[in-house]
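QUALITY CONTROL LOG
STEP: pairwise intake check
CHECKER ROLE: data steward
CRITERIA: each record must contain a sequence immediately followed by its structure tokens, with no blank fields

ENTRY 1 OF 2
RESULT FIELD BELOW
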Amino acid sequence: MFFSLLLQLVVVAVIGVAVWVWKDGFFAQALFYGGLVAVANSGMLVLRWHRGLKDYHCDGQRHLKSFHRSMLERFFVVGVLLAVGFGFLASAPHVMLLGFVVGQLVWALALMLGRRLF
């Protein structure tokens, strides 16, 4: 999972630099911010997964409660970060959402690649 998170961050950074060269810094900043929101979402998921390795239990209700709490935490963090990007940063909203979507797609592809390699 850490490999997937690192790969996601590297790909988002490379795409951000490519957009900076291709367009300009304004679009690159918006795309990179959206990508970093996706990385924050994945990072919270990895953190919860890593914490779950140490706190092992066999209680179904407790697992379900943990899954639900993790989902709500990530939902609200992503919502707040995107709202900050839309409101306070005055970035290009469509480019920022594109960066978020690209970051999420890279996360899924990195997970598939990580499972094939390791």
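ENTRY 2 OF 2
RESULT FIELD BELOW
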Amino acid sequence: MSAVLAYSNTSEGETFGLQRKTLAHAFNRAAAGLKPQQPHADGQTLIAEAYIAQETLKQVGEALTSLLKYSEFEIGPEKDLVRAMDKVAQKGTDLSENCDFSRARHFTSVEQMKTMIDLFGQRGPVSLAHEDRELNVHILDVDNTFTTPNPKKPGLCNLDVKLLVPFTLEDGTETYHVCELQFILKDMRKGWDKSHDAFKESRSHAKRAEFLENAMEMLGTNSGTSFRRLEAEHSKTVEKLNAAEDRRREDNIRNAKKAGAYKLAGYQPCKNGASENLASAQPKDYIKLVPA
């Protein structure tokens, strides 16, 4: 980055020593096609670093909306730490696996989305011109559900990328934070929010079903009436969970059709008019994107 950001995490006046993964580690994982990770797993520090990274995300948004007229960019709320801890606990991992503490959304037309796929549709460094200087970010992971459906996001069509934002600590340590940037068709915006409501509902039912399962296991089948009541409640909760998931998938499919997302099916990133391999994990040369 052109501007150096500094951050110091202190407790009672003393610098808190935190073991961090290096930038090279993050780049090597991306080149190997592995999922991105934060440089450490300390939750409080990750939240603070999310605020630092958001400043760069805002500048990225300003550069993109300057280039793409009538597109819309918004910064999302920071990820709730309790929710993040619950999410990684379910996966059996730690907070270094959570890469959406800092997140943003960019809403575009179908043709503008092609430009975004050209720029952000593959792993590697990207340089954006902004206010007579460059913003350098590195794409660590790409989830392009226009081309490759994701079973975890039934029926959803968007471009979801994980960006590495580098910055420097007060003591000179070079580190980074991984952010999420979602590109969504403008005509899907209202339907997107409705689909997300269904997702939150299904998540709530899934959590309740988990608690009921734990209660049933603690009691055991010999507990008689109490177990049967829990079992019946669990069955009802699973039905509600499945109904919410079905509604989410149907909403996503309907929204994608309405927005013309099918026009992007199979679209590959292009550079100088030539298509490049979306699945490639090897770093590419910087792509210059200069707003008009």
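INTAKE CHECK: passed for both entries
DESCRIPTIVE NOTE, ENTRY 2: The first strand starts at residue 10 and ends at 11.
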